[in-house]
Amino acid sequence: MQIEGTSYHTIWFDDNVKEIKIIDQRWLPHQWEIMALTSSDELIEAIRDMAVRGAPLIGVTAAFGVWLICKESANKKSPNLYFEKQILALRAARPTAVNLNWAVNHQLEIIQHGSSWEEKMTTSLAGAKSIKQKEIITCEKIGDWGLEIIQKMYEKKQEPIQILTHCNAGWMACVDWGTATAPIYKAAKAGIPVHVWVDETRPRNQGAAITAWELGNENIPYTIIADNTGGYLMQKGEVDLCIVGSDRTAVNGDVANKIGTYLKALAAKDNHVPFYVALPSSTIDFNMENGMNEIPIEERAAQEVLFIKGKHEDKLLEVQLAPDDAHAKNYAFDVTPARLVTALITERGICKPSKEDILSMYPENR
Ligand code: MRU
To answer: How far, in Å, from the CA of 176 to the mean position of ligand 1?
Structure first.
């Protein structure tokens, strides 16, 4: 998608210097920085510290990480031991987004037959490039399916469609298009007037910082709202539908997404506002039967709650919000039970959030 008129992906392999490059998201939109990930430790830290973030992008980054680990292993005294240790560290970088382990598993499967580290490097690099390309196609397909929903609403309403989204499930969380934002971009391209209510998304404010910036770059009208505003807007009839992303969806249709998603789903149910979750199949955990009971919820540093990052004049600052000796809890995700979700928008189509419908959409995982 566009940044000041130029098309970008969030991650790419620079063939000239044989390096992985990312857009560092930690100070967006105030600071634009391209970062090279030159070691697996650096790549793992980039995931942990959220220089790259969003479930699909975490998955693609991890896939490139396997290539880096193969490359480093080749020069170690005990290559297998080193390889195992780094793969474990990579898997543990962020626990909720299942895309990370999905991508690592996929890469391990394709490199297992490589007889040398050179061969494993070649196949893992090709594998990472292919996972990246597939995520782009997948997100675009999600956009096409989601467009149908927005189009039908517009045919009835004949006025701008009001969409509420939480966190950043946009192209910055993927490689291109985004998941929740793909239908929005498709609708705008189809000439359907849309307006997006952007939840600020405390504590890290991915909505106010990244989603707003993304939408602005694509000339999509939006308004940032404090996290607690959505329910009030729904009561006033100012939200036609909610679309959010997912970090892990269990086979029963329960969905983990950024903390606060559950409260939006509750408000949507109470106000008869359809609540859609847009997700690629790489986000479905086909080994998990019950999301409410089983999805691991990442807990991050209290610092993210107690302080806030921003810009003052030309300076990037982190300022303290709470008393000096304050304590905080920082759960990064919550689980929305399937009964609150209207439907899932996947690359294969729209389905009910139930085991039967998910598995009939993906019969190879039965
Ligand atoms: O903690 P983050 O910023 O990685 O959380 C991102 C989200 O919760 C997104 O909504 C989710 O990954 C879906 S991204 C298409």
So the answer is: 14
